[in-house]
Amino acid sequence: MNKVSFLALGGINEIGKNMYVIEYGDDILVIDCGGKFPDESLLGIDLIIPDVTYLEENQDRIRALIVTHGHEDHIGGIPFFLKKINVPIYATRFTLGLIELKLEEHRLTRDTELVTITSDSILEFGEIGVSFFKVSHSIPDCLGIVIHTPEGNVVHTGDFKFDLTPANGQYCDIHKMAEIGRQGVIALISESTNAERKGVSPSESMVAEHLVEAFRKAEGKIILSTFASNVNRVQQVVEAAMKTNRKLSLLGRSMVNVVDVALERGYLNVPDGMLISAHEIEQFPPDKVVILCTGSQGEPNAALARLSTGNYRDATIYPGDTVILAASPIPGNEKGVSRIIDNLFQLGAKVIYGSGSSTGMHVSGHGYQEDLKLMLTLMKPTYFIPIHGEYRMLHHHRQLAESVGVEKGNTFIIKNGDVVDIEDSVARQTRSIPAGDTYVDGISVGDVGEIVLRDRKQLAEDGMLVIVLTISKGDRKIIQGPDTITRGFVYVKESENLIREINRLVKKTILELEADNIRQWNVMKQNIKKSVGQYLFRQTKRKPMILPIILEI
Amino acid sequence: MNKVSFLALGGINEIGKNMYVIEYGDDILVIDCGGKFPDESLLGIDLIIPDVTYLEENQDRIRALIVTHGHEDHIGGIPFFLKKINVPIYATRFTLGLIELKLEEHRLTRDTELVTITSDSILEFGEIGVSFFKVSHSIPDCLGIVIHTPEGNVVHTGDFKFDLTPANGQYCDIHKMAEIGRQGVIALISESTNAERKGVSPSESMVAEHLVEAFRKAEGKIILSTFASNVNRVQQVVEAAMKTNRKLSLLGRSMVNVVDVALERGYLNVPDGMLISAHEIEQFPPDKVVILCTGSQGEPNAALARLSTGNYRDATIYPGDTVILAASPIPGNEKGVSRIIDNLFQLGAKVIYGSGSSTGMHVSGHGYQEDLKLMLTLMKPTYFIPIHGEYRMLHHHRQLAESVGVEKGNTFIIKNGDVVDIEDSVARQTRSIPAGDTYVDGISVGDVGEIVLRDRKQLAEDGMLVIVLTISKGDRKIIQGPDTITRGFVYVKESENLIREINRLVKKTILELEADNIRQWNVMKQNIKKSVGQYLFRQTKRKPMILPIILEI
User: What is the pLDDT of residue B389?
Assistant: First the structure.
């Protein structure tokens, strides 16, 4: 008898970098392929993507990559994945639009098979059937997935909330979910982002009233920053602009790109003549303009940051203009956001900011505890696997599941790499596969790892010293040097004595070794590192990288 | 006629690194000398302290350093300041206790004059008189300062809140403040940390009830983390431990040190026999022990972080133990704190956490809007200078001041380095002095600046390459090398081709220069950097530091 297996390659014990695998017999389905932006401790790394070693080893069995929605943490890794494994991609029209932007950037369009699906699609891959249901989230056209296997139906929620009054018609299909639950769900795989938050996730339409109110009050220009992908929010901004008779200008590459995709594919309606280009902004009276821009997370090169420091060519923020931050800082971004708010106040702008939904200008796209409980109640799963969250969120999600009837012991809190096998209607987590972070630095993938990062860290903290000396091949006397070059260590001018002492120490070290008749290079280098390192630590409490270069002539 | 001047060397447009100067005629008083912990962008920097160039140039006029209270952002820079300028320090008994810990560490105790003051002290420095008033804050023995000058009285609040039911008897002296206000205040200098928060700062005593409740409920050990300097909080922990019949163990160097100072100087009362040492913890039943530890800000080497990963020798967290985070993460520390919470959940601990006062286990030491308005109302200043805050907080504080009667135009929102002069009862801000950040790296001060940091940043992001070649003195032919050594760039094993191509390029560059009869070292180095740099950027989209070393034999 065969079994159905759920594998997590990313997205568990972390927010970001989602990638999941469902397999049954000879068929493998991959769900999502996200990227995660690293924190500052990963020096120089641009993106983290899942380790797909397991999939590379089993690529002949992979039937499809199914994408739940178009957020970076679900699609950011796709180009890098495709370069290793070419697989057809199944997603809704809007999601595919965003994926295509990425494929164009990486010149992968021609060789990739893209299949447009809707929530009504029914797919078959060997013995696995796949159907879908609509969920509400902070981006259009999101799907939950039902995987039909001989072992029973497995449901993957994607990212969701229950928004009964969504903007832009992005309803969730509760009736279909109820029907799925009625038919029986052996395992529910559900996202956990807001498992710590009590109550119900507020509706996106709440934002509309606050927007219109703020737009009416604003005397000068309005500058509003939100995630470009939140097209439903963008639609509400368009409508508020319409009501207050303002033109709309888009600043920031991703805002322009995403709005293009949304317009082209019919996910956004903008009245003719409302959109103006950046260089037209100054031609209209300030109270007739809304600027919609990127940078709500404090990204230093995005439009909002540049506007806040007066470094945006086409647009200037004047005293009395209103800036609305229609987003909540993602953990880790608080400082960057707060710096921008400060700069905006210094320009004399009125700034509407605050975390969460406190200003009424933002709501989360993820369900709160009551939303999560409703999903669990609708699906009535036998087994439950919370995903898309840090450990404490998964922990809280388990408590929620148990509170609505999932049996104790039937929740699997797993880690990336863990596998849950369901066989004979019994689920077990007993095995793991390789899973971890793969780093993208520049255009290369995976050539930066622990050692390189450790070196970067040392270089970053205390800089480095290169010590060059030439010794003669015959008697191994020093014939040139030692010379010491430093970078990132100390001001050279102020540390002449230090450098002189280093050179003296190196000479002494070599002479001592010579006296002991020790002439191996590696010993010479080791001893130089040790004596200079100890001296520098005593003098400066720093540990720069020391790189002795010994030439033999 | 003489004037009174207020100078800010730190503490404005930032939280952290407070240092202010008041001068009249020949006399200079310095208020506070703080340090600030850098964010990750300042690679390798341990501490930021104020630039005291102005004070060095005027050191014969400095009469005293007066310290309002013992927090790091008010005392952290003292040892470095004293090494440049020896000046007597005036502070209360508890504050001096914490300063002495620092002086001992830097071996400065013998040469520093310390003067113990109380809120009743009256000091005179030339024509300046100084008196004090008690304020409540999250550390014992805090002072506000009144500077009496022929131009009128200037009041500096220090950090404060109005806590009418403080823990540990740390009352603020409202009657004295009223009397100061009645006598007339030409300028109020007041802290702005919570100027964005509506309402009244909750009382420290609110924490007591929640502590006792949590202690009663806890079935295993209790591990509580808070700022060591919050002795009033520590006192409440002691009392809750007493009520629930638990022993108390202190983990973490600063916790042990500060509690020592507090006990010795009478700011903390602990019943005999309650304190147990770390290695006695396991000898008591878990429900008879409270561990009070450092690390509430997620510091990776502090006690809580080590406990959360099972790396603390003397104590282990078992499933069912209760961990209480009695502190709110300072902006920038959220990620570190959240990592620890996750680890604690994985150990099976019950964790009480949450931002601000949401858990009842923490209250801010800084006054909210109503506290700030009360101070402004009591002091009735003609001029107002908000300090101790980022720009938006100063901005809000100005609005508060105007709402309680400070005339529009009489508030000075200044930057570090700006000077407010009061002459003939009129205040003006027309001049500035040098002020900025001085970096402490290891034990050296000021030898790391922009260039060193820029180098560190480049090294951190993309690592480095050292290219060594030896050329002959005579005909300038390459006689050895080029050899390329990399650190922090790529895995060497995986990039043999890259290194080979670099060496080829270097050779080519040298031959081309030779053909053109160009033999200057700097030109050779420049061209190597350029050709290799361009090649690497094309291949990897990275820009490592390139360090050509050419030896002439």
Answer: 95
CA A22 from chain centre, in angstroms, equals: 22
Is this complex's ipTM strictly greater than 0.85?
A: no
- Please count the residues of chain B: 553
Strands B464-471 and B478-487: antiparallel
CB B110: neighbour CB atoms within 10 A?
6
Q: Do B464 and A459 touch (CB under 8 A)?
A: yes
Residue B226 backbone phi and psi in degrees, to 5: -150, 175
Mutate to test the interface with B, among A444, A478, A529 (most CBs of B within 10 A): A444
Contacts of B325 in chain A (CB under 8 A): none
What number of residues does chain A have? Answer: 553
Q: For residue A486, what are its two tokens? A: 């430093």
Q: Say what the pLDDT of residue B471 is.
A: 84
Residue of A nearest to B536 (CA): A442
Give the Cα separation of B340 and B334 in Å (integer): 10
In angstroms, the Cα distances linking A166 to A94, A119, A169, A380 are: 17, 17, 6, 25
Over residues B187-212, the pLDDT tens digits come to 999 999 999 999 999 999 999 999 99
Q: Closest-CA residue in chain B for A339?
A: B390
CB under 8 Å, gap of 24 or more: what pairs does A277-280 form? A277/A249, A278/A249, A278/A250, A278/A251, A278/A314, A278/A315, A279/A314, A280/A247, A280/A249
Over residues B431-442, the mean pLDDT reads 86
pLDDT beyond 60 at B1: no
Phi and psi at A133, nearest 5°, equal -145, 150
Its pTM stands at 0.85
CA–CA distance from B99 to each of B33, B63, B67, B69, B499 (Å)? 11, 18, 10, 10, 54
Strands (E), A67-197: 89-91, 114-116, 122-125, 128-135, 142-149, 152-156, 187-191
Chain B CB contacts of A478 under 8 Å are none
Give SS3 for A32: coil
Please say whether the beta carbons of A366 and A159 come within 8 A.
Answer: yes
Exposure pattern of B477-507 as b/e (b: 16+ CB <10 Å)? Answer: ebebbbbbbbbbbbebeebeebbebbbebbe
Read off the pLDDT of each residue in B437-443 and give the average, rounded to a whole number.
Answer: 80
Domains and CATH numbers, chain A: 4-199+364-442 (3.60.15.10), 213-352 (3.40.50.10710), 450-552 (3.10.20.580)
CA separation, residue A34 to residues A49, A57, A156, B272 (Å):
7, 20, 16, 58
φ and ψ at B434, to 5 degrees? -60, 135
Question: Which letter does DSSP use for residue A36 in this model?
Answer: B
Per CB-CB distance under 8 Å, the chain B contacts of A338 are: 331, 390
Average pLDDT, chain A: 92
Least confident residue range of A293-297, B439-443, B533-537? B439-443
B120-130 pLDDT, tens digit each: 999 999 999 99
Q: For residue range A243-259, list pLDDT tens digits in order.
A: 999 999 999 999 999 99
* Nearest-Cα residue of chain B relative to residue A40: B40
Specify the pLDDT at position B492.
Answer: 66
Predicted confidence at residue A236, as pLDDT, reads: 96
Residues in chain A closer than 8 A to B449 (CB atoms): 491
Maximum mean pLDDT: which of A41-45, A535-539, B84-88: B84-88
How far, in Å, CA of B512 to CA of B528, rounded? 11
Omega of the bond prior to B482 within 30 degrees of 0, cis? Answer: yes
Rounded mean pLDDT, A5-11: 95
Let me know: does B258 contact B285? Beta carbons within 8 Å: no
- CA nearest B194: which of B389, B441, B477, B463? B389
CB burial readout A55-74, b (16+ within 10 A) else e = beeeeeebbbbbbbbbbbbb
Residue A1's pLDDT band, with cuts at 50, 70 and 90, is low
Q: Tell which of A337, A342, A358, A359 to mutate to test the B interface (max B CBs under 10 Å).
A: A342
